[in-house]
# Entry
Amino acid sequence: MRDHQREVTTTGVPPWKSPVALSVTLHLLILGIALAGWSWTSTDHEPPPRSISARLITQQEPEPSPVVEPVDQQKRDEERRAEEQRRKEEAERQRQEEEARRIAEQKRQEEQKRLQQQKEQERQEAEAKEREARKAREAEAARQKAEAEAKERARQKAEEEKRRQEEAKRKAEEEKRRQEEQRKREEAERKRQEELARQEAERKRLEAERKLREQQLEAQAEAAQRAREEESRRQREAAAAKAREAQMLSESEKYQALIRERLSQAWYPPSSATEEMTARLQITLLPTGELAGVRLVSSSGNTAFDNSALGAVRSLSRYPIPNDRDTFERYFRQFTIEFNPRRLR
Amino acid sequence: MTHRIWHKPSRTLLAATALIFFAVSAARAELLIRITEGADSAIPVAVVPFAESGQMPAGDKVSSIVQADLTMTGEFRTLPPEKMLSLPSRREEVYFRDWRLLGQRYVLVGALSRSGDRVQARYELFDVNREERILGETAAAPASNMRSLAHHISDKVYEAITGVPGAFSTKLAYITLDTANGKPRYRLQVSDVDGKRARIRLESQEPILSPAWSPDGEKLAYVSFETGKPVIFVHELATGNRTKVADFPGLNSAPAWSDDGRSLLMTLSKDGNAEIYRMNLDTRQLTKLTNHWAIDTEPSYDATGKGIFFTSDRSGGPQIYHMDTPGAEPRRITFGSRYNARPRPDNDGNYVYYVHQRDRAFHIARTELKTGEETILTRTESDESPSVAPNGRMLIYATRQNGSNVLTVISADGGAAYSLPASEGDVREPAWGPLVR
Amino acid sequence: MNFSAQSKAFALLLSVGLVAGCSSTGGTSEEGGEYGSDVAAVDQEGGSTVYGGDDQGGVSSSAMTEEERMEARKQAEQQALREITTFYFDFDTAEIKQEARDVLVAHARFLANNPGQNVRIEGHADERGTKEYNLALGERRANAVQRFLIVNGASRGQLETVSYGEEKPAVMGSSESAWAQNRRVELVFE
# Structure
C-alpha cells in the first residue's frame, strides 16, 4: 500500500509567526540584551587609583610644632647649634623618613596598586564569575524558556500535527475513495483492454490461419500452373498465345472459385430473399487484392437484398487473386459479381 | 435442424457447370462470378446497451428485450455486451473497425431519456461493413410501457435489415392447465410475444380449446366445455364481454376468422358428422361448406382470404385439403405420411404449416404451395398447434419438454428454436396475434 | 386384447358362481342385476347345497325347467357383460372391436327393455395428433357406439353423445399403454 501521506508543511501560517522563527527571535533578543549589558572588560583596563585611595590605611604624621625657649646665648648657640644639628639631623631624619616614607609610600602605592590590581582582578573575577553565573542563570533561564517554548511549540506542533493528520486522514479517505473508483474504472478499462487484446489476438490468430490457408492454396495453384506451363510450352510452340490464353483462363477459374467461396461464406441473404432476386455489383480491385471500389450496377428491386450483397462484398478485406499480373489485369482488375439465391435440387 | 428433402449437387457437377459457364463468359470482356448460396448461419448483430439519462423504470433493459427479440427469430446471433470493446450511444462513438474485428454485421446504439412519466429512445442502426447508418429514429412511450417501446425498436431493426416487418409487438393467446384445490384449472391467457405480461382472460374447470384471433386483434374466438359440451364463444378482449355464437347439438369447434372479421369458419356435427360451416356473425346464418361422411375440421382461410385449408380423413387418415373457393371441390395437399392435420397458411401464400406424423413421432412440417415440396421443421416429437407469425418468419407450437407441455418458437424454415419461459403448469394451443398497425 | 381376456375371465368366474347358485324359484332379479341376498341356491340334480350371496340357510324351491335355467343363465351373462361400460379403439379409427360387440348388444337389449333408462356416450381419443381432429374422432367413436346401440334395440331418445377429444384422459402419460387406455368410449348411465 502506497503511503498516501503527503509531505506535511505548515500551511496557512505566515513565516514570521512560525514558532521556529519566534524562538529564534527570542534567542537573539536574549543574546542581544546579554551582550548589551556585557562589559567587555579585559585585564588591561584599570580604573585610576584615586577612586580607591579613599581607603588608605596609613596616614601622614603631622609635623611637630617648633618649641622656642629662652636660654643663654651660648647655651643658646650651643643649643642653637645643637638645635641646628638636631634640625639637620632631624631634617636628615626627616629626609630619610621622607625618603623612607616616599619609598614606603611608593611601596604602599605599589602595594596599593597591587592590591588594587588584585582587587581589580578579584573583582573582575568576581564580576566574571558573576557574569558567568548570570550568564549561566540567563542561559538556564533561556534554556528553560527555550525548553518551555519548545514544549509549547511541540505542543502546538503536536496539535497542528494532529490537525494536519486529521486533515490528511480525511483527505486520504477521500483520496482512497477516488482511487477506489478510479481503480474500478481502471479495472474495467483494463478488462476491456484485455478483452480487446484477446480479441485482437484471436483475430490475429484467425487471420494468420486464414493467411496460411490462402498461402497453401496459392502455392498449390502456383505449382499446378507451373506444371501446365511447362507442358504446353513443350507441346505447342506455335499456339503459344492460345496456350497462354487457356492458361490464364484456367488459373482465373481457380481464383474465381476461391472468391465465390469466400463471398458465399460472408453473405447473409435476408430471409425474405426469393429466387427471383438478383443483384449485380461491379468490383474494382487493387493488385494487392484489396477492394478499390464497388458499384451496384443492377438492383434486385429489394433494398435489403442489395444491402446484403454490398455488405458481403465489403466484408472481405482482401480478395484472393492470382500472382500473375497479366491474369489479374485481364480478369480481376474489374469484374462483376451476381448475387442470386438458388435452392439446388 | 431440418430434414431437408432438397440436397446439394455434387461438387464435380458444380465445377463442371462453372467451367462451362466461365468458358462461355471468357468470350465476354468482363468476368462474372455468381453467388448462389449464402452463409448458413445467423447474422451477427451487436445490440449495445442504451445510454440512460434520468431514472429508468425497473425491469428488463430495453436493449436486452431487443436482443431477446432478435434472437428469437433464429435469424440473428447477438453479441453479449461483455464482449463489446466499447459502448457507444451515437455515431461519433462508433468505431467500425472494432465491430468488424468482432465479426459483427450490424450494430444498434441508442440512448434513453426520462422526462416526467415518459421515456424517449433515440436509436441508430449501422451496417458495419458499409459504415452506413441504415436506421435512425426517436420513439417515446410511457414509462409504464417500456416493453412496448423495446418491441417497437425490434420491429424497426428487423425490418431495416431483412425488409420484412417485425412481429415483436404482436400478442400470443394460449391455454394453460394446472390444478387448484385438486381440480383442473384451465386458463385462457394473452401475453406479449415473449411470454411476458400475461393476463388471464378466462378461467374454467372444464377444457378451453382453439383460441383464434380476429383480424383486428380485438377479439378471440374459442371452444369452451364449461357447459359440459364444446361450445364456441367470441370474447371481446377490451371489455371482457363474450357472446356464445355456436351451441348446436354435437360439436361446435375449430373457429377461424374471415379477413373482414365478420364471419367464422367452424366445425359442426349437428347434421350427423363433423363438417365445415361458415357462420355470418351479424346474422348468425350458416353456410355448409363440406359434405362428406369423413371428418372435415380445422378450417383456415388461405392468404387470398377466399380459399380454405382444412383437415379431412376422407382418404382414410387425416390429410390437408384446400378449396379454392368455399364449397368448391377440395384438392389434397399433403401426401408424405398417413397423418397430416391442422393447416395454418402464412399470410403471403408461400407455405402452409401443419402437424405431420413421421414414423412414430408428430412434427411440424410445411409445404411450399408453389412446388408442393414438404419439409419437416422440428426435431421434437410430440408437436401440436402450429401458429405462424403474421410476418411469416416465425412459428410457434406446443410440444412436450422434460415431461411438461411448453411453447417453442422456431424460425419459419425450421432454424433455431427458442422455448418461451415456462409458466405455471402446462401450456398449449398457442395462437399468434395479428400485426396491429 | 386386455378387454377380451378380462371380460372372459370375469364372465367365466361369475358363470361358475351363477351355475352353482341358480335358484329353483328363479330368484334372479330382473332389476339392475342384484341378487336377493336371502336366496340360497340348491342344485336340484346333485342334491348338494351351494350358497350364493349371503348365508341365510337353504330354502327349498320347486324344480326349474331346462328352458328357464338357460334363460336365467343367459340373463346373468348379459348382466355380467353390462358391467363393462368402457370400449377401446385402435389409433385413428372408430371401428368397434369384435369383443365389444357382445357387450354392446347386451347394453342395447337392456336399454330396449328399459325405455326410461338414459345413457350418455362419451367419446375420447389419445393425446397424439391435433386436438380438434381428436375431438371429431372422439365424436365419431361415440357416434359409432350410438349407432350400434340403436341398431340393436336402443332408441335414439335414450342416447346422448358427447366428445371430449384428448382433453380427459383416463390415464396420464405418453406410453403406448396410456394411449391405448385413452382411446375409448364410456357409457355413463343416468
